[in-house]
């Protein structure tokens, strides 16, 4: 298993500002993912954070809006840029377990409210 | 395209009654299917995976490739089963996972 810590756990932000969410894992992992969970909605994959290279974004998500860093195998950041109220969501960091199981482990999430 | 469908947003049953949470998927290859659960004020966690064919907390789920379904079942629901349940699909091996909309299970005393 993997223990994942996310910071901040919640924040209230002003429109037009940017916020960076940090994700720290207690062990080295190959695959790290960022999900968004909008109010009352399911989880939507934003991107796969790749160590040493640019993140792989899903359809509808772009690097300018959600820049991601992955400097090593235990840490990643997601920035939500130029925020609007539509960005109010829970942002979740997750990592993949053993390659043979496909299980995901999740952080507690970062709840962002944009005013 | 990959898709996971959970038709019920809310399912309410009495304690001791059987419960079935429905999940259908769309995928052209051989997916790995999972059920994740989120209890109140806890993080999302794996409940069970189809490849293990195990029973966790009395829950089972059988992959039916003909019907492309992976319904979650428990013969006797308990109050502590009240939670949000997500069906998920992955190509496995750490590839990206997509989630259904989720079903909130409420077990009444």
CATH class of chain B: Mainly Beta
State Rg of chain A: 13 Å
Q: Greatest chain-chain interface?
A: A-B, 23 and 23 residues
- How many helices of chain B? The count is 0
pLDDT < 50 stretches of chain A: none
Sketch the topology of chain A as an H/E string, one letter per element. EEEEEEEEEEE
Topology diagram in text:
The complex is a heterodimer of chains A (115) and B (109).
Chain A: E1 4-7, E2 10-13, E3 19-25, E4 32-37, E5 43-49, E6 56-57, E7 68-72, E8 75-80, E9 89-96, E10 104-106, E11 110-114
Parallel strand pairs in A: 2-11
Antiparallel strand pairs in A: 1-3, 3-8, 4-5, 4-9, 5-6, 7-8, 9-10, 9-11
Chain B: E1 3-5, E2 10-14, E3 19-21, E4 24-26, E5 32-38, E6 45-49, E7 60-61, E8 72-74, E9 83-90, E10 97-99, E11 103-108
Parallel strand pairs in B: 2-11
Antiparallel strand pairs in B: 1-4, 3-8, 5-6, 5-9, 7-8, 9-10, 9-11
Characterization of this structure:
The complex is a heterodimer of chains A (115) and B (109). With 115 residues, chain A is mainly β. Chain A has one domain (27-114): Immunoglobulins (Immunoglobulin-like, Sandwich), CATH 2.60.40. Helices cover 0% and strands 50% of the residues of chain A. In chain A, the strands form 2 sheets. In chain A, strands 2, 4, 5, 6, 9, 10 and 11 form a 7-stranded mixed sheet that branches. Chain A has a 4-stranded antiparallel sheet with strand order 1-3-8-7, with no helix packed on it. In chain A, a hairpin with a 2-residue loop joins β7 and β8 (75-80). The model of chain A has no long low-confidence stretch (mean pLDDT 92). Chain B has one domain (3-108): Immunoglobulins (Immunoglobulin-like). Chain B is globular and about 40 Å long. Chain B has no helices and 11 strands. Chain B is mainly β and 109 residues long. The A-B interface holds A 30-31, 33, 41-45, 48, 58, 92, 96, 99-109 and B 32, 34, 36, 43-46, 49, 51, 86, 88, 90, 92-102.
